[in-house]
Amino acid sequence: MNTISHILQLWRFYWRTEKKTYLRIFLIIFAIYLVKTATIDFIFLRTNFDVYITSHYTVTQWIYWLSICIVFSYLFDAIHHKQRAIDFLCLPASKGEKFLARLIWGCVGIPLIATLACIAEALVVTLFVGAMDILSGHQVEWRNVFDYFCVSPTGYKMTDYIMGILSFKWYFFNISIFDGMLAMVFYTLFIWAGTAFRRAGWVYAIIAVFVVTAVIMLIYEVAGLKDMPFIHEKTFKSCMLYTFDALSILFTYLAYRSFCRAQIVTHKFVTL
Amino acid sequence: MIEVQNITFSYRDKSRPIFDNFCLKLEQNKVYGLLGENGTGKSTLLYLLMGLLRPNKGRIMVDGADVSRRQRSTLQQMYIVPEEFDLPQMQFTDYVETYRPFYPTFSNDILHRCMEEFHLPLDVRIDQLSMGNKKKALMSFALATNVRYLLMDEPTNGLDVPSKKQFRKVIATTMTEERTLIIATHQLHDVEALLDHVLILQDSQLLLNATVTDLCEKYTFDVRSNDALTDDVLYTERIPQGNATISLRQAEEEETPLNLELLFNAVTSKNIQDL
């Protein structure tokens, strides 16, 4: 019970001291989506509807999760600035409580902010399309405008899209059924990089993500694994999932160790 | 009690260790003055005592707990006022509401008294205050936490002359029997009247570790003319009024107030071996 009340205290602390950061995250993701819609959706992809349907979803998800992962790598940013680190590390709460409170806060709060940004962007685009229709002298059928928001120009239901985001399904890379679990590995990798590297941890994480993905794809494609019979066996799939689980746990543990070893003047590489 | 047990510490980019096999014991209910020239490791020692830096070897124990583990029970009894700090953009009352729950011994009464003494209103935006006023607000909060170990790094830097007087008054009135105050400074005159114990650091070594009572019992600090410079004078400095001197105190002599600057100069110039 004590730990729960301490975590609640820490959440109150995060909210009160970082309100503006969350607003900034909201505005950045909102802006990214707006730019994406204005360029990819309305200019390039409109010319080829078939490409549009498949690309829209992939691009949207890719931008969404990449931006969230980068934001995740800033979860423990306070420990990398001397003056903020003094404040944060001296706060009377155990290291486990601080780490856990931050992680839960990030995992729930940041996707929520990003989802709100997506909804806001869809709303703005809907209103913009409606306004353009009025200006061009068309009779606006508000039901259609509402459909635009609900169904989106791709024919993909906005409600499904939001539920997809909220259900934590990861679509970083198309690697069959492993994509969700592999994305968890990447997400924990981003958190670890954020706690371990003083400068731009997300850059190291992106490099690591591409290396890991490239290695897996190489093994999968070049070695011809997809044609081998055991690849489709249930046991093999389970083994892969356990491996990804283990990697996620390992990276979370490494992030925790990095956080525990954090000092106000950290070395370039934290000694775990 | 704080025990520094044979610590060795160096920043990775510096080859020479800041502390090498360094030991120190700090007792409760005392005001310690941690003195030293710039770059002697005063702030580093404070950060090590708070667990914000980790010694390469050895350990630091606060009331029996290893401080580098940064346990909640330890942190609840410690507070540091750094020389430079960032305060969040909010009203001071919100700041207090945000941080107060973490300190079970927090006293609103002390906070109000300190803020009143510093002539600061409670409903002020802390990020819009001047550096000196920010420091006063943070020190008020630090004292109000009622923690057992309060560490201050150059607390009088940025304070004007009246504020320095207010600072001394606030510290004197809020000191309790439970509390230990460690002040790292090179502004010797600002803290002279507050100290119970003097620690002088130089070249990673503790040159002096003595109580003010012992120093005043053992030595006489006075100003003498050239003719009065007798053999018992251990250290002397020319000043406009004559010679500021430190000499061995005779049994029948009255105790004189501590001249901290003179003592500091004597110790760091290594002219006094007998301390």
Which SSEs are present, and which pair or pack?
The complex is a heterodimer of chains A (272) and B (275).
Chain A: H1 2-44, H2 49-72, H3 82-89, H4 95-135, H5 142-151, H6 158-166, H7 179-196, H8 201-222, H9 234-260
Helix pairs in contact in A: 1-2, 1-4, 2-4, 4-5, 7-8, 7-9
Chain B: E1 2-9, E2 19-26, E3 31-36, H1 42-50, E4 57-62, E5 65-66, H2 72-75, E6 78-81, H3 92-99, H4 108-117, H5 131-144, E7 149-153, H6 161-174, E8 180-185, H7 188-191, E9 197-202, E10 205-211, H8 212-218, E11 219-224, E12 233-239, E13 242-248, H9 260-268
Parallel strand pairs in B: 3-8, 3-9, 6-7, 7-8
Antiparallel strand pairs in B: 1-2, 1-4, 4-5, 9-10, 11-13, 12-13
> Mind describing the biggest β-sheet of chain A?
none
Any idea what the shape of chain A is? flat
Tell me the β content of chain B. 25-35%
Number of strands of chain A: 0
In the CATH hierarchy, what is the superfamily of the largest domain in chain B? P-loop containing nucleotide triphosphate hydrolases
CATH class of the largest domain in chain B: Alpha Beta
